[in-house]
Amino acid sequence: MKASGIDVINLSIGEPDFNTPRHVKDAAVAAINEGKSDFYTPATGILELREAIAKFINDDCNTAFSKENVAVAAGGKMALFAIAQTILDPGDEVLIPLPYWVSYGEQVKLVGGVPKFVKANNETHKVTVKELEEMRTEKTVAVIVNSPQNPSGLIYTKEELEAIGNWAVEHDIYLVADDMYSKLVYNGNKFVSLMELSPSIRQNTILVNGFSKAYAMTGWRIGYVAAEEEIIKKIGAVIGHETSNLAAVSQYAALAAVTGDQACTEEMRQAYEKRLNDIYPLVCEIPGFELKNKPEGAFYMFPNVKKAVSLCGFETTEEFADKLLEEAHVAVVPGSAFGMSEHVRLSYATSLEDLKKAMGRMKEFVEKHM
Description:
Blueprint: E1 9-10, H1 22-33, H2 47-61, E2 70-73, H3 76-87, E3 93-97, H4 104-110, E4 114-118, H5 129-135, E5 140-146, H6 158-170, E6 174-178, H7 199-204, E7 205-210, E8 223-226, H8 229-242, H9 248-259, H10 263-285, E9 300-301, H11 306-311, H12 317-328, E10 330-331, E11 333-334, E12 344-347, H13 352-369
Parallel strand pairs: 1-10, 3-4, 3-5, 5-6, 6-7
Antiparallel strand pairs: 2-8, 7-8, 9-12, 11-12
Helix pairs in contact: 1-9, 2-9, 3-8, 10-13
């Protein structure tokens, strides 16, 4: 539709609308000019980058990691896939809380594993030990904990994580901590990583993070894993056979990002925070949209639109989203992509002007069809 000149406001994209910081780009150009990017690197990444990431995690989580605890991969998605390849055998089960990021289940299935989706019995979209235990079997190998959560933007508290962590340790279950949005937290809320908790929880945790969200580097494809050395060695073997290594130029860009001035991340965080605060009440004003818990991090909102779908006379959320795009020219993602069909995901990683315009269009669309 955009190619035809139609003014479509895209709230479906899961990437920052900012450009990669200038000093990061300059470091990549310098690496090219100096010939550093011309050759293979170690499968798990260049020494300097792995050391810098280890220090970054140590500073944040009070860990004592070295380069041997870190593997760099071609994006967070590849990092998660390498983890699945490393810890799962055919038939192994992975508990995945709802709502979930779209690739979790597929990556488990690609290695012959069985994804088991766990629905929270409350309005927070956060699971508790009770729900996890109800789904656990002798085949359960891992649980994925995503905080801040994509698509809801909600954050697990320290107490919630400790309960889940202790339960996982008790049953010898890996904790896969997807902390990709850890630097994008708003309005005084606090992010806590599983890596910050007790030594026993930390030992069971495999941390996944990357540079795409905090540094606006989605196109550079830089993710990483941090875990016990034995796991990292196995992940390194998987990466070596799957991709050889992350593109060298991206690694030098990442090195500049993680060791350089972090003001760029804070500027983006503040911009997202303002957008969230400005448009959250506008979302709540749309007839039939329910969003009782204001997002605390990431850059998404995940309202329940069951009433709006019904008010408009549509059968499904997918039909609602299709008509919204066709008539109001606003693109959203139906919640079925995240395992919860009564919701839609709205990204506020776009200009505040467009966001306000999109909220107005959505409200008019619902009122028109009521």
